[in-house]
Amino acid sequence: MNNSPLQNPSLLCETTWREIDLSAIGSNFRAIRGAIGPNTKIFACLKQDAYGCGAGKVASILCAAGVDAFGVVSIADALAVRKAAPRKPILMYPGIGPSAVGLVRDLDLTISISGEEDLASWLSIGAPLKVFVKVDLGFWRAGVAPSNLRRLMDVCTSHSNVTVDGLYAHLSELGDAGSSTLTQVARLTPHLAGLKAEGRLPATVMVSSSESLLNHPEFDMDAVDPGALLFGLTRSRTGRRILPIRPALSAIKARIVALKTGHDSMGAPPDLPGYHPDMRLAVLGIGWGHGIPRRLGSSASVLVRERRAPIVPPIHLEHLRIDVTDIPEAALGDEAVLLGSSGADRITLPELAEAWNTDETGVSCGLRESLRRIDAAPIETEPRRRGIT
Ligand SMILES: *Cc1c(COP(=O)(O)O)cnc(C)c1O
What is the pLDDT of residue 273? Predict the structure, then answer.
């Protein structure tokens, strides 16, 4: 896509947007591939519109990079991925039900089965089904309990129109709140051994997503299904695999749409934190309607003309006030940077996540569709040599 305003006139009127660095996604994918080697498949988890980065474009990038398959939850994401990737397998994580059977057939989707009731509801439709059986190793969410896994496999294989292509789990990675990764995987190991001995092990066994991929290389198995890691939302600093991961969400920007110094004729000033009579306020064309949380940390600021301007709460649906008293050159139409760099200063994703009282995935997935996505220029890793074209 060309983002020049002349090629794309609507950008001229845009008051706010996010910038997605698609090259980071390709590069993160290659880092993961390099770490796990060629024999483990990568199911790219593109749920929540590819963690806010746009499922269709991300699927195209990953197809070009050699992804093996995709995982999504919603039909909307499945449609976007199928359009971009006509032939790759798409695994539906638990979410859709038998009413979607027409789309499951037309889009050639693989469904997840989490229990006998779940299977029975799909069987009542009478259509052929490609399934992955999902097992719950301690997340206490979707998935069959390990003790019922073998029976569920038996029931699946007793139906000739059901093909079990895989067996997978999503590990709980909530730290102290659940069992360790080792304990969780140990709940599956004896069943895998049993199924293998009987020659009934499905072709794809998969348990690792971002955190365990970084921390437990021994659990790569046949496939892994990372999400956050592909988008640079999980940092790889302390794990056993240290990967050169970059965030795909590279900037959030908004223009100054109004500027003013207070005046008595507007009545008493509202209860604005830090208010003083000479305060110069700028209003940005972004608000909680675009996905900014309504309550921010007290240190939240943006960059205007390479300087920090504090956010002056409360935040409104379409607008956000900042204090530009110390930036007299701030002008209407200026770009303010909520995430990203302005000159030498930079607001990083971890810093923004802290100000927004969330984590990096919370920022990326919390942005709304109304916050337009544009392609960021890839970050240059080497300075361009002058005079060579
Ligand atoms: C979200 C999700 C993933 C990806 O998890 P990350 O921690 O983002 O890597 C993988 N599998 C399932 C079933 C999921 O719901």
Answer: 86
Percent of the chain with pLDDT over 90: 81
Which of residues 62 and 5 earns the better pLDDT score? 62
Whether ligand 1 lies within 6 angstroms of the CB of 47 is answered as yes
Report whether residue 228 contacts ligand 1, using a CB cutoff of 6 Å: yes
Quick check: is 123 in a domain? yes
User: Would you call 7 helix, strand, or coil by DSSP?
Assistant: coil
Asked if 296 and 337 sit in the same domain, the reply is yes
- Same domain membership, residue 101 and residue 208: yes
| Cα separation, 373 vs 290, whole angstroms | 12
Same domain, 204 and 307: no
pLDDT attached to residue 238:
76
Q: Residues of the chain with pLDDT > 70: what percent?
A: 92
Specify if 316 maps to a domain: yes
pTM of the model: 0.92
**Best substitution site from 28, 135, 136, 225 to test ligand 1's pocket, by max atoms within 8 Å of Cβ?**
225
Q: How confident is the model at residue 299 (pLDDT cuts 50, 70, 90)?
A: confident
- The separation between the first and the last C-alpha atoms of the chain, rounded to the nearest angstrom, is 23
The values of phi and psi at residue 177, to 5°, are -70, -10
94: three-class secondary structure by DSSP: strand
Q: Is the CB of 227 under 6 A from ligand 1?
A: yes
d(CA 80, CA 316) in angstroms, rounded, equals 32
Whether residues 133 and 258 share a domain: the answer is: no
- CA separation for the pair 269, 344 (Å, rounded): 34
CATH code, domain carrying 192 = 3.20.20.10
Number of domains forming the structure of the chain: 2
The whole domain housing 270 covers: 249-386
pLDDT at 387 over 60: no
**What pLDDT, on a 0 to 100 scale, did the predictor assign at position 147?**
96
pLDDT at 6 over 60: no
- For residues 283 and 324, membership in a common domain is answered with yes
Identify whether 242 is part of a domain: no
Q: Are strands 320-323 and 223-224 parallel, antiparallel or unpaired?
A: unpaired
Whether 336 and 251 have beta carbons less than 8 Å apart is answered as no
Cβ pair 36, 42 in contact under 8 A: yes
Q: Which pLDDT tens digit goes with each residue over 105-115? A: 999 999 999 99
